[in-house]
Write a structure and sequence with these properties.
The protein has helices at residues 18-27, 37-43, 45-55, 73-93, 112-133, 156-163, 177-180, 186-192, 227-236, 250-254, 257-271, and strands at 6-9, 32-36, 58-66, 98-101, 137-140, 171-176, 197-202, 204-205, 217-218, 243-245. The chain is of the alpha/beta class and 283 residues long. It has a single domain (6-271), classed as Alpha-Beta Barrel (TIM Barrel). Strand 5 (137-140), helix 6 (156-163) and strand 6 form a beta-alpha-beta unit. Helix 8 (186-192) packs parallel to helix 9.
């Protein structure tokens, strides 16, 4: 297998600037990149978009929108405004998907249902603008350990259920191996998401988890996840975009970025070698 489907998410080389990340991908012939809004803000949107165009890289995702669960009306309005800005940024960058991390419990509340309804209402407010600009919103479910503070959508099925209530040209789901590998219903939910898979992210589950659970992702093959099996489900559901390696890990961040990029490519080809990819990723 070659690496024509590979995308490098900026989180994997977090210390680098946008310009450094683009140059890294070019040096290692990685054809696509997943961008983070902080780096776009630091560069300026117009300059960032111009740099991406010059690089020739495809933008597989923009991270992130979301965090909709606020009790205070002013905070909800601020979140809405920020997400509308994120939609504009995704449009200018021609990103395949704007990733949504929807938010945890409302502060002071234990009502999961209320938080999930708040997320549905907030996404509904964004759909008209997303459709106007041709931006696909990708709802990402997170592992249950993040339910309280980051995302009350803990199963891929939660994200699929919500996405199916909106037009397919506006809302899909992001399948992230790190967040779904444990779920016995993941295969069935990937099948239910056929035509709705907006992005595919890869990162391994390493043990023991570090004290900061957010940093528990490892290089492909270093942990517990069966990547070929999940990938076969994703491809069977009709996904034809890029597979984005997204790793949050302090040791990876401390390593020389060229070493990290080389390892990402080697592991992508080695771990996913048996998977029958159907042509080059186009987004």
């Amino acid at each position: 297998m070659d690496t024509t489907r590979l995308s490098l998410n900026q989180a994997t080389v977090r210390p680098l600037t946008l310009a450094q990340t683009l140059r890294l991908c070019a040096r290692h012939q990685i054809p696509a990149v997943g961008l983070w809004r902080e780096s776009i803000a630091a560069a300026g949107l117009a300059d960032a978009a111009a740099a991406v165009r010059r690089s020739g890289l495809h933008v597989s995702s923009l991270c992130r929108g979301g965090f909709f669960t606020h009790a205070d009306p002013a905070a909800r309005e601020a979140a809405r405004s920020d997400n509308l800005a994120a939609i504009e940024e995704a449009s200018v960058l021609a990103a395949d998907v704007l990733v949504l991390v929807s938010g945890g419990l409302v502060a002071g509340s234990r009502d999961l249902g209320a938080a999930r309804r708040m997320i549905a209402d907030a996404i509904a407010e964004l759909v008209p603008r997303a459709r106007d600009l041709g931006v696909l919103l990708g709802i990402e479910s997170l592992h249950p350990m993040f339910c309280a503070d980051r995302c009350v959508l803990s199963r891929l099925g939660d994200a699929v259920d919500l996405a199916l209530t909106f037009p397919a040209d506006a809302v899909g789901v992001v399948v992230d191996t790190y967040n779904i590998w444990w779920d016995s219903r993941a295969g069935a939910d990937i099948a239910r998401a056929a035509g709705r898979i907006a992005g595919y992210q890869l990162g391994d589950w390493v043990v023991p988890l570090p004290r900061d659970m957010l940093l528990g992702r490892g290089h492909l093959g270093d942990g517990a996840i069966d990547f070929p099996s999940i990938t076969e489900h994703v491809l069977a559901a009709g996904y034809d975009g890029f597979a984005e390696v997204e790793i949050f890990n302090q040791q990876v961040w401390d390593a020389p970025p060229d070493d990290t990029a080389a390892t990402v490519k080697e592991r992508f080809a080695g771990v996913l070698g048996p998977v029958p990819w159907r042509g080059a990723g186009t987004g």
